[in-house]
Design a protein that fits this description.
The protein has 13 helices and 11 strands. It has about 300 residues and is α+β, with helices and mostly antiparallel strands. Strands 1-5-4 form a 3-stranded mixed β-sheet.
């Protein structure tokens, strides 16, 4: 079951230096989130930013909430930890950014429910068009599922939309009273998934910025990163299926095609690369003019992650 959240980020989008700072503190056994004063001193952030970073660390798949505070996930330990020689502790590799985006799209487990920010679910799984304005998105948000059963204010919905946009679009305004920390871009602007695309006149006569998702192939997304995500999605959503068609990988809920905004042609090209590079693992299939791939072997998560960061 999905449990959607529209808040928790305190209206702050992710910042470039935040996740490495948080992981470094947690790796040392410090918990900068249980005591706001300690967190402010340790991380050099304001109280609301500390609360926001708490949200982002969990939402990005880097820490789990436990009775004793936050605990680094296996993913964080393998990729971002410094003492344990993580693959990319300073977020210098674009593949790490794609993986963080993947984690944000899929949320985190709390008990038997999977929680996720609603904007990520909406834009990856529900929105059929490539373009949208703030007003259109907020209207959709207002009609979406609300786990709490309570009506959400227009302010909350707009803030949720703006946080999503600032996470992916460079140079978004952070407000007239912004601190230097608030003016920093999100690291995920680097992947170029969303951009401004002019403006549009709305029925009320006002003009609003149009945001457009970049579809087509993603040159910065490696086929090894796609391989990791394909296996993870296959295990969680299609575990009983030995073979999948390209259209399924492109269009089913939470699929790599949905998350990365990839058309079937781009996905097929990646599958060809995977079958050529890992012939014992994947085999291309074709049935009634439907192209797909079968999975004959499932490597461990460590192997999949390691391959992303090694030549």
């Amino acid at each position: 079951m999905h449990d959607f959240t529209y808040s928790g980020h305190e209206s702050f989008s992710l910042r470039i230096s935040w996740l490495p700072k948080a992981v470094a503190a947690l790796e040392k056994g410090e918990d900068p989130f249980s005591d706001p004063r300690f967190g402010m001193t340790t991380l050099g952030l304001g109280k609301n930013m500390i609360q926001s970073l708490h949200f982002w660390v969990v939402a990005a798949g880097l820490a789990d909430r436990t009775d004793k505070g936050l605990r680094l996930t296996e993913f964080a330990q393998k990729v971002l930890c410094r003492k344990r020689t993580g693959f990319d502790p300073y977020l210098e590799n674009t593949q790490t950014l794609w993986l963080l985006h993947w984690n944000l799209c899929h949320g985190w487990l709390e008990g038997e429910k999977r929680r996720r920010p609603y904007a990520w679910h909406f834009f990856m799984n529900i929105l059929a068009n490539d373009e949208i304005t703030a007003t259109e998105a907020i209207d959709h948000f207002a009609g979406g599922p609300v786990a709490s059963g309570k009506d959400l204010s227009a302010v909350t919905l707009r803030q949720h939309f703006e946080v999503f946009v600032r996470t992916y679009v460079q140079g978004q305004p952070a407000g007239p009273r912004s601190t230097p920390e608030e003016t920093l871009d999100s690291p995920l602007t680097t992947i170029g998934l969303l951009r401004e695309n002019g403006d549009r006149k709305l029925p009320n006569g006002k003009r609003e910025t149009v945001y457009r998702f970049v579809t087509g192939s993603k040159p910065s997304l490696s086929f090894k990163t796609f391989r990791y995500c394909l296996h993870e999605w296959w295990d969680h959503n299609q575990a009983d299926e030995k073979s999948l068609m390209v259209r399924q990988i492109a269009h089913r809920e939470d699929s790599p095609g949905r998350c990365f905004r990839l058309p079937e042609s781009a996905i097929h090209k990646i599958l060809v690369d995977l079958a050529r590079e890992y012939p014992k693992e994947f085999e291309l299939t074709e049935s009634r003019s439907q192209r797909g791939i079968s999975r004959n072997l499932r490597p461990g998560r460590d192997v999949l992650l390691s391959s992303i960061y090694t030549a």
